[in-house]
Amino acid sequence: MIKVGVIGYGYWGPNVVRNFKDNPEIEIVRVSDISTNRLQALKSAHPEIDVSTDENSILKDTEIDLVAIITSTSTHYRLAKKALEQGKHVFVEKPFTATSAQASELIEIAERKKLLIMVDHTFLFTGAVNKMKELVNKELGKLYYYDSVRVNLGLFQYDANVIWDLAPHDLSIMFYINPQFKPHSVNTVGADHMGKGMVDVAYLTVNGSDNFIGHFHCNWLSPVKVRKTLVAGDKKMLVWDDLEANEKVKIYNKKVEEIKEKTEFYKLQVRYHHGDILIPVVKQVEALKLETAHLVDCLKNNKRPINGGYEGLQVVKILEASDLSLKSGGKEIRID
C-alpha cells in the first residue's frame, strides 16, 4: 500500500481524496486543512480518515510515503520542499510552483533523493486529449498552431491572475500533444477590470520552433462558459470542444496548400482542400481516476510520469514570462 497524506481540502481536494481512496493501492493516512469546517465536511464523507489542522502532522509522519499538496500556488514550493526533504514523494496541484527557480530546485532535490514529483495536469488523462495526441501523431502532419479559448464567469483567485488560473491546462496539453515544440518567447496582453491587481481577461501568445504558435484566450468575465481548442496541421485540422457531451473531438479533412506552379500571381496563390469530417469515439473515464492509477504505476514500477517536475517547469516558465510581458505592455519576453 502507498500511504498518502493530503494537505488541502478546498475546491479540488475532495476530488483528490475520493479518487485516492477508491484506488486499492492507496491508503490515505491523514488529511490536513486550516479550516475546521472543511475537515468536518471530510469526516462526514469519510469518517474513517484521520484529520488535522497541522500540516506537520503529515510532513513529519514517517509512515507517509507521498504528500498530495492541494493548496494555493504560493504555498506549493514551501510544502513540497519540506515533503521532499523528509523523503516523501509529492503530488502537486497545478501550477507546479510560483517561479521557475522554485520548480528547478524541487526537481534537483527529488532527483538527488530519488523521489517522484507529479504535477496535477489532470487534462492529460482525459479521453479527448489522448485522442487528440493520437490524431496529431497520425493525421495532422506538420503542426501550424494551437489556439484555445477557456473562458467563464469567475472564479476569481486571490493569489493568481486569470492566466495562472486557466492557462496551465492548455499549456500542459499543448506540450503533451506536440512534445517537439520548443518555445522561445511570449507576448501577453490583459486588463484588470475589477481593480484587484490581477488581470481578469488576457491573451497569451507563445512563439517557438518550426514556426509553431500557441495562442490562449483566458477570461473570468465571460457571460458564457467556453472550452474550445483548434489545432491545425498541413494535412488536417481538428476541433476539441470540452463542453460537448458526446462529439468532443472532430477532425476536419481540410488544408491550405501553396500552388507550386509559377504564375504572375505566384506569391498570392493558394489552394483550399475540403474533405469529410470525422468524429472519433472518445473514452469517457474520469481523468483523475486514470491519473491516480498512473501515479501508482510510476511509484510501484519506478517509472517517469508524463506529468512530472520537468513538465510542470515548462508550464511555469511560460506563466512567469507572461507576467513580465504583461508588466511591459505586451513586450516580447524571451524564454531561456
**Total beta-strand segments:** 15
Rg result: 21 Å
- Distinct helical segment count: 9
Number of domains: 2
Provide the CATH superfamily of the largest domain: Dihydrodipicolinate Reductase, domain 2
The third-level CATH topology of the largest domain is Dihydrodipicolinate Reductase, domain 2
Q: Would you state the CATH class of the largest domain?
A: Alpha Beta
- Termini separation comes to 41 Å
Walkthrough of the structure:
There is one protein chain. This protein has 336 residues and is α/β, with parallel strands linked by helices. The chain has two domains: 2-115, Rossmann fold (3-Layer(aba) Sandwich); 124-285 and 325-334, Dihydrodipicolinate Reductase, domain 2. The chain has nine helices and 15 strands. The strands form two sheets. The protein has a nine-stranded mixed β-sheet. Strands 3-2-1-4-5-6 form a six-stranded parallel β-sheet, with helices on both faces. It is globular, with a radius of gyration of 21 Å.
